[in-house]
Design goal:
The structure holds two protein chains of two kinds.
Chain A lengths: L1 H15 L3 H22 L3 H17 L10 H19 L29 H13 L3 H12 L4 H8 L3 H18 L4 H9 L3
Helix pairs in contact in A: 1-2, 2-3, 2-4, 3-4, 4-7, 6-8, 7-8, 8-9
Chain B lengths: L8 H6 L1 H8 L3 H13 L4 H16 L6 H16 L11 H27 L6 H6 L1 H5 L4 E5 L5 E4 L5 E4 L3 E5 L8 E12 L8 E5 L2 E5 L3 E6 L5 E8 L2 E5 L10 E4 L3 E6 L4 E6 L15 E7 H12 L2 E4 L8 E6 L4 H12 L1 E6 L2 E6 L8
Parallel strand pairs in B: 5-6, 15-18
Antiparallel strand pairs in B: 1-4, 2-3, 3-5, 4-5, 5-8, 6-7, 7-10, 8-9, 9-12, 10-11, 12-13, 14-16, 17-18
Helix pairs in contact in B: 2-4, 5-6
């Protein structure tokens, strides 16, 4: 909403002037959504928590030098992803999930055709299940696009890839979904239109 | 609204306002989409498909618990206290931030009903939610108990007014939080809420949660009674149950004036119907004339629909020759309908929130 957006910027400007209320309000507003994104990037609770803390500690310490952000949320997401990258390199025996290698997802049985009277919640359950079977990177793009509401161009800048590969990843994700969950085809058909 | 008319499901799923309406619905956004679908019922399948997909995406999100949120904040405080950072920070700022955090935590916990709780019920401590923020913050809520035999009028800090019926109790903070106005009701109260779209007004009464931005309504949540009711006088009201927050399909009712939500405690069902005595809706009151002189019934019904904010359904073809001459006045809506139906030889029934008039029609000579 417009008001929310204005508020983000107001908080951001107040933070740059050293307003602690604004600082804690920004944390309060964003930590949960940052966490949910962080968890898509790195499936490691401690690492995500550390990255969020570092992000906010830096934000306060460097509040005077941070620039005016055109989108506070975008700035925070991009910074968090970088933090996770940096921390994951330091950590031993843990690997950034940034690879396309992924166990072959088991197909959700197509023997349960979607019944007319089937509960909406069961349908949601099935799509969620199918989404969880996607490679991590595809899940990340889906989350940024459909949950966090970023545009392809912003996603590209957050992840440090080209817009074209954002589009490709999204396309792969949705094709994957269609293969893994044939019963979803009628629903997902529409999602594939925009690539054709 | 026009813009959305030609949207495909995928365009809906990508639309910022649509996403917000799914993830962080407000009474206003709910009303927007329900009236959109009323106007363009053919969009139902695409809207449902888009919503289902988004809900699945939402379900796959892992959100932190309140404890994790507090723990991370403590970590931030601790790191900011380290000596190298002191030149940047005025004296004991962290302590002050710490206190603010407590307030922040309270807001987050209560917001839970809005979307957090809905998103991730598993991580949410329900017992804390039910006791409200006083438990978390140590802030004591103001409490008013009406143990007299007449109604008690209470003015809240935001300008809203509550008329508390005998043997009823309300709790509220001395000054409301910046993002929400929250009150807790036991018994019966009439609320006249000062409008503020940025600070929704929420009433918790037993298992029922009522959310508005500015409106008036009555809540009846008598301890030991079998039902809890929320009846709307003016404005728009969203009512949902605590349990609804756990279900994927959120059980949320949207009420307009003269509608009420009835929550059956035994079955856990929340249903919507007309109030027993519909009154003139506020903006129409005072300027109403119900004197009809050989007026077509379609016109009479339209007049009543506008005056009382109700929906009247009838077979317009069957009743096309029915005209009415009647000087109606202050009698209640249902009395007016009795008179009208008698005159045109019809009957009416109330179905949920609709009034359905059936009649075989009038002879053309009636004109």
């Amino acid at each position: 909403m417009i008001n929310e957006r204005q508020s983000d910027e107001q908080l951001w400007n107040a933070l740059r002037e050293g307003d602690q209320d604004a600082f804690s309000a920004l944390y309060q507003r964003f930590y949960a959504t940052l966490y949910s994104y962080g968890y898509k990037v790195a499936d490691n609770v401690t690492l995500v928590e550390d990255a969020i803390q570092d992000l906010f500690v830096d934000l306060w310490r460097m509040r005077r030098s941070v620039s005016g952000a055109e989108s506070v949320k975008f700035y925070l997401f991009r910074s968090l992803r970088r933090k996770i990258h940096v921390l994951s390199k330091k950590e031993d025996g843990w690997h950034f999930v940034d690879t396309e290698t992924h166990a072959a997802p088991e197909s959700y049985s197509a023997e349960h055709p979607l019944m007319q009277e089937e509960e909406q919640s069961q349908l949601i359950e099935r799509i969620t299940y199918a989404l969880e079977k996607l490679p991590p990177r595809q899940q990340e793009v889906i989350a940024l696009r459909f949950y966090q509401g970023f545009k392809n161009e912003e996603i590209a800048r957050i992840m440090g890839i080209t817009e074209k590969s954002v589009r490709n990843t999204l396309h792969k994700a949705l094709s994957h979904l269609r293969e893994q969950a044939p019963f979803l085809a009628p629903l997902l058909g529409f999602l594939l239109w925009w690539f054709s | 609204m026009e813009n959305y008319r030609n949207y495909t499901a995928e365009e809906f799923a990508q639309d910022a306002f649509f996403q917000q309406s799914v993830y962080r619905p407000t009474a206003d956004s709910d009303f927007f989409w329900s009236s959109f679908l009323e106007r363009y019922p053919e969009k139902q399948p695409v809207v449902t498909a888009a919503r289902t997909f988004l809900q699945a995406v939402e379900k796959g999100q892992v959100l932190p618990s309140a404890e994790q949120g507090a723990r991370m904040w403590q970590g931030i405080e601790r790191q900011l206290q380290e000596p190298e950072s002191t030149p940047e920070i005025p004296e004991s700022p962290v302590r002050r931030i710490g206190l603010r955090w407590i307030r922040a935590a309270a807001v987050l916990l209560m917001m839970g009903f809005g979307w957090w709780f809905v998103t991730k019920p598993g991580t949410y401590d329900r017992s804390i939610a039910q006791k409200g923020w006083s438990l978390i913050t140590g802030t004591t809520l103001e409490e008013k108990v009406n143990d007299t035999t007449s109604p008690l009028s209470i003015r809240l800090s935001d300008g809203s007014r509550v008329v508390l019926q005998p043997r009823s109790r309300i709790r509220y903070p001395k000054s409301f939080d910046a993002s929400k106005r929250e009150t807790y009701l036991e018994g019966e109260g009439f609320f006249d809420v000062a409008r503020n779209t940025l600070q929704p007004f929420i009433v918790y009464s037993g298992k029922v949660i009522t959310q508005v931005v500015g409106t008036s309504f009555t809540i009846r949540a008598i301890p030991e009674a079998k039902t809890i009711s929320v009846a709307v006088r003016t404005g728009k009201v969203a009512v949902y149950t605590r349990n609804a927050a756990e279900e994927a399909s959120r059980n949320r009712l949207l009420l307009t004036p003269n509608q009420q939500a009835i929550f059956d405690i035994g079955s856990g069902q929340l249903t919507k119907r007309l109030v027993d005595e519909p009154v003139l809706v506020a903006r129409a009151a005072g300027t109403q004339s119900f004197i009809f002189n050989n007026a077509p019934v379609s016109q009479v019904f339209r007049k009543l629909e506008q005056a009382y904010g109700v929906t009247i359904q009838y077979d317009s073809t069957a009743l096309r020759h029915c005209n009415l001459t009647a000087p109606l006045g202050n009698e209640p809506l249902f009395r007016k309908l009795d008179i009208i139906c008698q005159t045109i030889g019809a009957t009416y029934e109330v179905w949920d929130t609709r009034i359905v008039v059936t009649g075989s029609g009038c002879e053309t000579s009636n004109q």
